């Protein structure tokens, strides 16, 4: 697990975030790449629909940590995520997974059932394009290629962590026997990503998360998580997942470089 991001060289990449719309569902535009002062546009953008907290709970909106992680994925996607199997856990509105799907061979975007439709909406909104329409055509050939990859790689899958004890193992056994599984199960992945997954001090939730990671991560895989390291569940997660008698994982912690925090500020705490 990498708790936070390592500084890997300098970058002239800029980012901007602007909220569009109000009410039950809002759309946020997150810009990446060089900013054109003349057109007042960034060279690349992601569009994310948010939901009301009543309908979606904590998965309703973009968390600051997810925006920061997406900046990392965007910058190093070709180097780290390209042609790999990736899974986002606790995806919420799915910004990180949507971005990773541009590079991955397969990207599973996972969360609870009530978030599925909105995650599918956001994946489709960011992968669809029409080269005959000035409003929806891709700004560059590279973006076009990435969106074409998204259409093949992006897969929204329901994943309730607590099913890791019963339904998921049963489904995996059924798949191994060539039977139709009781639920869809992702393949093992080389990279698993998440933002603020260990924010809770509930040990049952952290235990389920660790078992999910251990079940779906490839033998030589990496779990990348970004969070404020004073979150309630962090110490228990670290103690247990590094325990030689349990999971025996190796953890490396890096402080987020200021360039990922953004000029506009995200409100992310300095402990990140």
UniProtKB/TrEMBL annotation:
It comes from Naegleria gruberi. This is Predicted protein. Pfam families: Methyltransf_16. SUPFAM superfamilies: S-adenosyl-L-methionine-dependent methyltransferases. The lineage of its organism: Eukaryota, Discoba, Heterolobosea, Tetramitia, Eutetramitia. It comes from the Eukaryota. InterPro entries: Methyltransf_16, SAM-dependent_MTases_sf.
């Amino acid at each position: 697990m990498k708790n936070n991001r390592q500084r890997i060289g300098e970058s002239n990449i800029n980012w901007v975030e602007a909220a569009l719309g109000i009410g039950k569902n809002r759309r946020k535009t997150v810009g990446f790449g060089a900013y054109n002062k003349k057109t007042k546009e960034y060279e690349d953008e992601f569009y994310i629909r948010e939901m009301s907290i009543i309908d979606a709970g904590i998965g309703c909106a973009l968390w600051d940590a997810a925006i920061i992680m997406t900046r990392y994925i965007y910058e190093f996607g070709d180097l780290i995520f390209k042609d790999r199997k990736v899974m986002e856990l606790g995806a919420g509105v799915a910004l990180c997974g949507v971005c990773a799907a541009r590079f991955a061979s397969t990207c599973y975007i996972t969360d609870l059932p009530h978030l599925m439709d909105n995650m599918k909406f956001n994946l489709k909104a960011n992968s669809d394009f029409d080269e005959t329409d000035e409003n929806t055509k891709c700004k560059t050939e590279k973006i076009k290629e990435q969106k074409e990859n998204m259409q093949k790689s992006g897969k929204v899958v329901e994943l309730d962590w607590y099913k890791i004890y019963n339904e998921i193992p049963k489904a995996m056994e059924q798949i191994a026997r060539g039977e139709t599984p009781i639920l869809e199960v992702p393949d093992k992945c080389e990279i698993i990503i998440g933002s603020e997954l260990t924010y809770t001090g509930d040990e049952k939730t952290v235990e389920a998360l660790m078992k999910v990671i251990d079940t779906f991560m490839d033998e030589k895989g990496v779990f990348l998580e970004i969070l404020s390291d004073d979150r309630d569940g962090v110490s228990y997660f670290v103690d247990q997942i590094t325990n030689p008698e349990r999971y025996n994982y190796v953890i490396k912690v890096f402080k987020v470089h200021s360039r990922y925090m953004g000029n506009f500020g995200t409100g992310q705490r300095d402990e990140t």
